[in-house]
Design a protein that fits this description.
Layout (H helix, E strand, L loop, with lengths): L1 E3 L2 E3 L4 H10 L2 E5 L7 H6 L1 E6 L7 E2 L2 H8 L3 E7 L9 E7 L7 H25 L13 E2 L1 H8 L9 H11 L7 E5 L2 E5 L7
Parallel strand pairs: 3-4, 5-8
Antiparallel strand pairs: 1-2, 4-6, 6-7, 9-10
Helix pairs in contact: 3-6
């Protein structure tokens, strides 16, 4: 469900999509977990405030995958099309990812950048006084299933120490119990703390 005025709506309902298109000039998606249907994004201008640097790591928890695959992290405002976190870009800005950062630290930096982009560009979007550009390529997409698979730690997995550390950094997000492993019938939660000396 997404906030819509004072109520919540389900954009998967055709009658809701029809109502939105008839009443409103544009729609903003700000951390909405619903995938907007093709009828909505083609029937009205829809803009997404996305906590990722499109086209890199489109989809769920972009900062997690940026830590893992080394692709840039950042914030993007884009005009929505029928693909997830895809479409012409209004504005975007990269944030740094440091070796000691966990998912939470990168996410907090991205959120601050989203606020900056919102402040800088909302007026232009509302007035229609802006331009867009196409992403440099199609990028990559990570769904919720990809993320959930990461959270299941495999104690027998062979990899470099750096990749193991990056996996634990990527899954450490405050008190969220993301990274887990099971041994002797017991489940354990893992989080990582790295401090720069």
């Amino acid at each position: 469900m997404c906030a819509f005025g004072a109520s919540e709506i389900n954009v998967k309902l055709p009658e809701t999509v029809d109502q939105i298109i008839q009443i409103y000039d544009m729609v903003f998606s700000v951390h909405c977990k619903q995938i907007f249907p093709k009828a909505l994004v083609e029937g009205i201008d829809c803009y997404n405030f996305h906590p990722g640097l499109n086209p890199f790591n489109r989809g769920w928890y972009p900062q997690v995958f940026s830590i893992l695959n080394g692709y840039p992290a950042g914030a993007t405002i884009h005009k929505m099309d029928s693909q997830v976190d895809h479409g012409d870009i209004v504005a975007q800005r990269e944030v740094e990812v440091f070796p000691q950062d966990t998912s939470l630290e990168v996410y907090n930096r991205v959120i601050e950048m989203e606020k900056t982009l919102l402040t800088e560009h909302l007026g232009a979007i509302l007035s229609g006084n802006f331009s867009v550009f196409k992403p440099s390529n199609e990028g990559n997409y990570n769904g919720i299933a990809n993320y959930r698979e990461l959270c299941k730690l495999d104690l027998s997995r062979s990899d470099t120490l750096e990749n193991h550390i990056n996996l634990l950094r990527a899954l450490t997000h405050g008190d969220f119990q993301n990274a887990k492993f099971t041994k002797d019938g017991e489940t354990y939660w893992v989080r990582l703390n790295i401090e720069k000396l």
